[in-house]
Specification:
The chain is an alpha+beta fold. 31% of the residues lie in helices and 27% in strands. It has a twelve-stranded mixed beta sheet with strand order 1-2-3-4-5-12-6-11-10-9-8-7, sandwiched between helices. Helix 7 links the parallel strand 10 and strand 11. The chain is globular.
Length: 301
């Protein structure tokens, strides 16, 4: 397991961006309410790759800055919005190519914003990082190749019958499994400075019926996953975790089939992204019916 490190987690209220409007290219500016329709159209062009932005727009109903400090940088060509980038504690590009990414990176460098992660389509993420890396704290992990996978129908694999939405009264049993998943995947503990905020995050997923779980006869979590990001067009599966005692028994495919079935009750497209080096997970997802439709990259601080 990776060494546990204390970090600013993206769900903490103190983890806010401080992007300012000073000193940027004339082609870049912070979007406002009047840009909402254009941002909708840009993000909807690829609802799987841009699910983060679409989910935000569905909740906020505006492209304007949020009260928590999140803003959207717009990239314009002749007055037309051609790319964008969410800039909060996470940096998430939308529709950016390798030519526009460095300009966004320079903008972020000038703003000296505090960032927990950069993630999204690999070309955009890595081009942003090409400029931001010289002024940014050293990341503790760079994942340049993460297959973005999608499916649009139910799996032919028989779904695990026990998987269901978690209940709030199961939070105390589920939380250690969520913590273990986070530590394995990200490399540091989300509760190293106390569990209040992470606990609230997990509870929120349960309350929205986005947390799926199965227990064994002893009441231990066998498998869990979340419908982590949801929009009207797509669901992105996150937080997949199998209890180590049950690994290697061929259970993951039936559980993932059940997760897909639950996600399809919410939106017509189901997606996830996975580290390229995680061959067992990739094989499991492909067996369930996922196909690669793109490549993400993630930089973690």
């Amino acid at each position: 397991m990776a060494r546990m490190l204390g970090r600013v987690a993206p769900w903490l209220p103190s983890a806010k961006s401080d992007i300012r409007s000073a000193a940027s290219s004339a082609a870049l500016r912070i979007l406002g309410d009047g840009d909402t329709d254009a941002l909708w159209d840009l993000a909807a062009a690829d609802p799987v790759a841009n699910i983060f932005m679409l989910s935000h727009l569905e909740a906020a109903r505006t492209a304007a800055p949020t009260s928590a400090g999140g803003r959207v940088i717009g990239v314009f060509d002749g007055g037309t919005l051609t790319g964008a980038c969410w800039a909060g504690v996470n940096v998430v590009p939308v529709g950016l190519d390798a030519a526009a990414g460095p300009e966004v990176g320079r903008y972020l460098a000038r703003s000296r914003s505090r960032v927990s992660s950069i993630f999204g389509p690999a070309e955009a993420v890595l081009s942003i990082w090409s400029e931001l890396r010289d002024v940014s704290p050293k990341p503790f992990d760079v994942r340049p190749e993460q297959p973005l996978m999608q499916m649009a129908g139910r799996s032919t694999v028989t779904p695990a019958p026990g998987l269901r939405p978690a209940r709030v009264d199961e939070l105390d049993v589920l939380l250690p499994a969520c913590t273990a998943m986070f530590e394995e995947e990200v490399g540091y503990s989300p509760v190293s400075n106390g569990d209040r905020h992470y606990r609230q995050r997990v509870k929120g997923l349960i309350e929205r019926r986005q947390s799926l779980v199965d227990f064994d006869a002893a009441g231990r979590v066998v498998f869990k996953a979340e419908l982590g990001t949801v929009s009207a067009q797509a669901v992105q599966i996150q937080g997949v975790w199998m209890n180590p005692e049950y690994r290697g028994q061929g259970l993951s495919r039936s559980y993932m089939s059940a997760v897909v079935a639950a996600a399809l009750d919410v939106a017509p497209l189901v997606s996830l992204y996975v580290n390229s080096y995680n061959a067992p997970a990739r094989a499991s997802y492909e067996a369930v019916g996922f196909e690669q439709v793109g490549t993400f990259a993630t930089i973690l601080f």
